[in-house]
Amino acid sequence: MLECRPILCPGLAHEPTTNEDYKPIRYNEFRHRICDIQSPIFPSMHRSQLSLSLLAISTRLTTAAFVDYTLNIVNMQISPDGFSRGASLVNGVFPGTVLFANKGDVLRNTVVNQLTDPSMRRSTTIHWHGLYQRTTAYEDGPAFVTQCPIAPASSYQYVIPTLDQAGTHWYHSHLGSQYVDGVRSAIVIYDPDDPHKSLYDVDDASTSGNEPVPDTGLINGRGRYKGGPAAPWSVISVEQGKRYRFRVVNNGALGYYTFQIDGHPLKIIEADGLAHEPLIVNSLDIHPGERYSIVVEANQTVGNYWIRAPITARRSSSTPHNNVFAQLIRVLAPTNDPTTSQTSGTTLDISNLRPVENPGAPGGSAPADVVIDLNYGGISGGKTGWQVNGSQYKSPSLPTLLKILSNNATTNNDFATSENTIVLPYDKVIELQIHGSSNGFFHPWHLHGHSFDIIQNGGAINYVNPPRKDVIPVGGGTGIIRFKTSNRALGSYTAILIGIWRYDLDAGLAVVFAEAPNEQRAGPKAIQPSSGWNQLCPAYQALPADQQ
């Protein structure tokens, strides 16, 4: 699913608390904004969502500091596409609170679980998608991999050093499929030495067996359901002559969007939090979990232009292909709907992306130290679910990390077959060969704790300057990625999860990597969880089943 959300201005204006608070923002009023593309959340009928986020901001302080956020996870009724449904929200808003920090800051995010709706999951966890968690693997967030869930009426503080990371990321619940109910939003980490800062003037980051598919697509929390009420489109106001950085995040759960702006080329400068050499395209496909920064120059005639993000694959039959819009409004232009036509031209081929820093796959063209084949597909026999190498992932009752630290689990045999856990050695080049499903559907795979080099994904092998991301969409062919388990020699990890978005963790499509378990247990790279982390499992395990 994908989402399209309204503009948010945390810290500069009010944050929206009702549908009436989602109003167009003219760029001459505010310097900080966020624009996301999303779809409505999953109810019994309108349950699927699609999400893209566009973010941009002006001047920021550059001194490293502690940055504190309180994230209250609550149940509320919302109607992003004109139809009301129950949701689980961050701080009572949809989209949720956007987190901002500078490179080198330490995020201290206190998650307060106030969920009470018995029809939904009442425990929760939060995953900080794209953040490496060097030496803090216990803060990564996937339930029963690195932690037990946070029980209702309790809280947990995630302490996350950003270290040398910058870029566009996002956070979401990582307990079953809970995030599709609304627990998600963007993270923006600013780099005072951004290699591309001369390219833009404004960085605006204001965000049965059958699988549910999106009924509606949203941009910045607004959209229209076919045959439903004429809910207003999201509006993004720009000033002629300025160059805008849009941070586009697909925080949806199933289908992917094709993003474009009528009459405006897109200059891509970032992919999955990492700077890449500028690449100009007319549109880009964005899969769940992916993030891109694009520079758009407001150099056309003053007027209104459609921002388009059609759901290109895996949508409901009731969802028109071209029914996901926002409006790019020029200051001083009339406020009527755009009449612009769709632009044809080049769509992004991710194999053409080139990273700015340290290009080149680990190990070069030499064979990798460890090569792992991952064959995935549906479960046979008419059942719903997924498997990898013939095994359907099932979450253990005791988190993988806790088994390593407390039960001395250091070999593959120390984990149940259903945990799909593979132990990786420290400081080695790992090559994953992900073989697509027979139905040819694209599945985005995300690796926690690392970025990786995509040395092949349908085209020629490239060891010299391959794209560097943390999400790879794999279709009917084979995607080959490489990473090194030393993670820049700054720390070690446990239970690094490679999986696919939305329901697939629940449905069994996941692999867990227990990385360098002996180094995690003792020595200079040992994992040392907080006292609060140690209390999560006893609190969760004491809950009745209906609160878990």
Note down, in words, how this protein is organized.
The chain has 2 domains: 2-130 and 165-348, Immunoglobulin-like, CATH 2.60.40.420; 370-541, Cupredoxins -  blue copper proteins (Immunoglobulin-like), CATH 2.60.40.420. The protein has 548 residues and is mainly β. The two termini are 25 Å apart. The protein contains 4 helices and 34 strands. Mean pLDDT is 80; it is low at 1-51, 56-62, 207-224, 314-325 and 488-492. The longest helix is centred in the C-terminal third of the chain and has 11 residues, at 531-541.
List keywords for this structure.
Immunoglobulin-like, 4 helices, mainly beta, 35% strand, six-stranded mixed beta sheet, 548 residues, 5% helix, disordered N terminus, 2 domains, 34 strands
Number of helices: 4
Q: What's the name of the CATH homologous superfamily of the largest domain?
A: Cupredoxins -  blue copper proteins
Count of individual domains: 2
Distance between the termini: 25 Å
Sequence-ordered SSE layout with sheet pairings:
Blueprint: E1 2-3, E2 33-38, E3 50-56, E4 66-78, E5 85-90, E6 99-102, E7 106-113, E8 126-129, E9 154-161, E10 167-173, E11 184-190, E12 202-203, E13 218-219, E14 234-238, E15 243-249, E16 256-261, E17 266-271, E18 274-281, E19 284-286, E20 291-297, E21 304-308, E22 311-313, E23 325-330, E24 370-378, E25 386-388, H1 400-407, E26 421-424, E27 429-435, E28 443-447, E29 452-457, E30 468-469, E31 471-474, E32 478-484, E33 496-500, H2 504-507, E34 510-515, H3 517-521, H4 531-541
Parallel strand pairs: 1-3, 4-7, 6-11, 12-15, 14-23, 24-27, 26-34
Antiparallel strand pairs: 2-3, 2-13, 4-5, 7-9, 8-10, 10-11, 15-20, 16-19, 16-21, 16-22, 17-18, 17-20, 21-23, 24-25, 27-32, 28-31, 28-33, 29-30, 29-32, 33-34
